[in-house]
């Protein structure tokens, strides 16, 4: 694909100020503010105490690595809670994110979504997030079980980063697909068929999550970026048929 997943996110970020979309951005912004506010609160109250306790358990001969382990634990803590909180936040924000995706599709690309009553759309959005949770949760638990293997601890931040990138990419791309009546299993297959495209999108979302203030804009920007990714897939399909 000529457009990368990373560029799709930044195009979504640029579109936040687009006339006609601004009022649909407010609620996703509020949900994202609460998300990162919760992470900051938990970090302040629990992260430093937990890190200090864990560092004290290190053998004396590894004490010179305490700064490295402190950084790794900080990254791991943020990634684990970012993963959990993002899924929960997107479940509650799903109807609003779905509406933002619909308006972005209409305004930016001139394509109307299939008509559905508002109540039906809200119920379907929540149902779709439930399907995502059932997909996400067993994998989340499997990754958490790796905490029981101490030699793997230094590698866990990297594994969680990859996990977050993939899950966030899938979740944000799904709003447009759900609006256009693409079922959950088909959505998964389409995203897997363009792994580099999807992983680049999730990578930039996860990376920018660590930048204060900018991370507040991630949710609405990613929803619009995910809508652009759906549109590009439709263009590619049309080109292949010619």
UniProtKB/TrEMBL annotation:
Q: What terms describe the molecular function in GO for this protein?
A: high-affinity sulfate:proton symporter activity
> What NCBIfam families does the record tag this protein with?
PRK04949.1 (NF003433)
Assigned keywords, A-Z: Amino-acid biosynthesis, Cell inner membrane, Cell membrane, Cysteine biosynthesis, Membrane, Sulfate transport, Transmembrane, Transmembrane helix, Transport
Spans traversing the lipid bilayer? 24-44, 64-93, 133-152, 197-224
Cellular localization per UniProt: Membrane
GO biological processes: cysteine biosynthetic process; sulfate assimilation
Checking Pfam families in the record gives: EI24
Q: How does it sit in the membrane?
A: Multi-pass membrane protein
User: Its GO CC terms?
Assistant: plasma membrane
What is the superkingdom listed in this entry's lineage?
A: Bacteria
| Name of this protein | Putative sulfate transport protein CysZ
Give the organism the record lists: Legionella donaldsonii
């Amino acid at each position: 694909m000529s457009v990368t997943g990373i560029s799709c996110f930044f195009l979504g970020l640029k579109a936040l100020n687009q006339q006609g979309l601004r009022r649909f951005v407010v609620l996703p912004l509020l949900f994202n503010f609460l998300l990162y506010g919760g992470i900051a609160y938990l970090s302040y109250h629990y992260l430093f105490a937990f890190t200090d306790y864990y560092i004290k358990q290190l053998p004396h001969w590894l004490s010179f690595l305490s700064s490295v382990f402190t950084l790794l634990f900080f990254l791991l803590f943020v990634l684990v809670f970012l993963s959990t909180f993002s899924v929960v936040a997107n479940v509650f924000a799903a109807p609003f994110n779905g509406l933002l995706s619909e308006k972005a599709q209409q305004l930016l690309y001139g394509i109307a979504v299939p008509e559905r009553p508002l109540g039906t759309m809200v119920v379907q959005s929540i149902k779709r997030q439930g399907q995502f949770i059932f997909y996400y949760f067993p994998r989340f638990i499997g990754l958490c079980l790796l905490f029981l293997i101490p030699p793997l601890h230094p590698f866990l931040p990297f594994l969680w980063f990859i996990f977050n990138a993939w899950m966030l990419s899938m979740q944000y791309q799904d709003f447009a697909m759900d609006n256009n009546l693409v079922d959950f299993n088909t959505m998964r297959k389409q995203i897997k068929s363009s792994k580099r495209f999807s992983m680049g999108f999730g990578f930039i979302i996860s990376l920018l999550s660590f930048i204060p203030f900018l991370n507040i804009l991630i949710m609405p920007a990613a929803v619009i970026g995910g809508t652009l990714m759906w549109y590009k897939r439709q263009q590619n399909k049309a080109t292949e048929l010619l």
